[in-house]
Amino acid sequence: MARHVIAKVEEVDIGKSKLVKVAGRDIALFNVKGEFFAIANRCPHEGADLCRGQVVGLAEADEPGKVRMTRHGELIRCPWHGWEFDIRTGKSWCDPARTRVKSFDVSVASGGALAEGPYQAETFPVSIDEDYVVVEI
Fold this sequence. Notes:
It is a single chain. The protein has one helix at residues 111-116; strands at residues 17-22, 25-32, 35-40, 54-61, 67-77, 84-86, 103-104, 126-129, 132-135. By secondary structure, the protein is mainly β. The protein has a four-stranded antiparallel β-sheet, with no helix packed on it. Strand 1 and strand 2 (25-32) form a beta hairpin.
């Protein structure tokens, strides 16, 4: 699995999203309270761009008439028909066992760590002992 740099942290404000293209796939990147999540940008219902949907919370009720909002900013509502998906998992809130959008692992890394890369020559500790340079293998 290859790693791809898709955005700078400051490009996606808290509660906002950004559409990115990775290996030919449209991916919706979300910033939820400083954590980043990525899901496929296609609603499984009829293909709407989820990145254009409204980021919402979850309305819950224990009894009629007493609604409370929870999970603020953790669901995306499809802009065409209102289907809602958990941004963290891609699961549909209405039918989580059967309906979901693909989710992707996302991490934040420093630029230095990304530039370093895996291509490094083997190194050995070197010291100076009086007038001689000594390498330890």
